Amino acid sequence: MKILITGATGQLGADCLEECRARGHEVYGVSSHMFPLSDESAMRAVLDEFEPDAILHAAAYTAVDRAEDEPDLCRLVNAAGTEILARLAQERDVKFLYISTDYVFPGTGNAPYETDAPTGPRNVYGASKLAGEEAVEARLERFFIVRISWVFGARGTNFVKTMLELAKTHKSLSIVADQVGSPTYTRDLAPLLADMIASEKYGLYHATNEGFCSWAEFAAEIFRTAGKDVAVTSVPSRAHPTKAVRPKNSRLSKRSLDAAGFERLPPWQDAVARFIAELGQG
Ligand SMILES: NC(=O)c1ccc[n+]([C@@H]2O[C@H](COP(=O)([O-])OP(=O)(O)OC[C@H]3O[C@@H](n4cnc5c(N)ncnc54)[C@H](OP(=O)(O)O)[C@@H]3O)[C@@H](O)[C@H]2O)c1
After folding, report:
1. Which of 28, 61, 98, 125 is catalytic?
2. What is the mean predicted confidence (pLDDT) over 16-28?
3. Given this model, what pLDDT does residue 282 score?
């Protein structure tokens, strides 16, 4: 199969590229340079040249706090850009896999969100990603929407790398404990996405590593696994105000993965251990 992967220089896109290549697919990975999501003619030219059977759309404007200051740019990339790409996919009748986020939900209560639960984003980024979902659903029939959360992988910056950096200079840290969700290791997610895109099991999915934790619990596990002597103090979100409001409850139900016969990802603690080994920091 010929697969175009957007966001191929990003944390998730890069691992998807590697996974799909390893499976023998013909893969073309693009970034903002060759494939700016605001430039329809550039996007059209790439699609005409490569003629993919499927598009794995992992590119996004991902600066959640900055988005509050530049909402137009965020919407241009995540909402309008996805709308253009969905239209180009519709014209060519190619399969489409769109990566979305837990931030489409308001984050109230304690129960894991089912895929069909009412949405209600709390910040600009979440609203733009939801608009992307709506564009995909409106245009396409052969689509997958996969909501993920708290991503970490070898490329780019992420919470695990930030904690390991902070461990070099801190003996104690105060970390938010009233936001609960699930970390997602890109190396675990990429094989699932590759299985999905090769299938005909279209629909809306949630996919993260198994289990729930707060950011404070996540940090404590990172320090424990990496053998760093850093004490974690649990604090409420208001102790670390951010431009963008974050949902308190980011728990995502995996029922739709089970129903479609896809395997769930390993527990998040197991993923953290493998990632720290991958970074050579164990
Ligand atoms: N990170 C998280 O915690 C998280 C959580 C939930 C969902 N997600 C979703 O997961 C997906 C992957 O996230 P990630 O963390 O792997 O992203 P990332 O590391 O921030 O990488 C973003 C990718 O998108 C590309 N991109 C940015 N602006 C673009 C534009 N205007 N036109 C074309 N491409 C553009 C970037 O290309 P350049 O290198 O050229 O800039 C890069 O390849 C995204 O859809 C994101 O919304 C992420």
Report:
1. 125
2. 98
3. 65
